[in-house]
């Protein structure tokens, strides 16, 4: 048996974990399974009884959110047209510091170009 590293992204349900974990052999070969989830209950089920392995991510700061958002669209915040600055603040508030939300919205807006009505 070889070692393995498996990443399961965005697991939502404890029962899904119970089903998935049956596929992994129980041994001491230093294999790892990394699970991402939005649910603390799912995280606890995946780590039980080792809850010290749970890493709770924090949202990005306002500064890091802006850097990611503007970097994705313009390459730099300095290049953002002035007329889009206020609406950008509103968009970033709605993203709540979540990197995936910021990247998704930034990608959509980058394809639309700097049209304020599209951004609003």
From TrEMBL:
InterPro entries to which the protein is assigned, alphabetical: Apaf_helical, Disease_R_plants, NB-ARC, P-loop_NTPase
Segments forming domain NB-ARC: 2-70
Top-level taxon in the UniProt lineage: Eukaryota
Cleavable signal peptide: none
Record GO biological process: defense response to other organism
One GO MF term attached to the UniProt entry: ADP binding
PANTHER family associated with the record: DISEASE RESISTANCE PROTEIN RP, OS08G0205100 PROTEIN
Protein name as annotated: NB-ARC domain-containing protein
Source organism of the structure: Aegilops tauschii subsp. strangulata
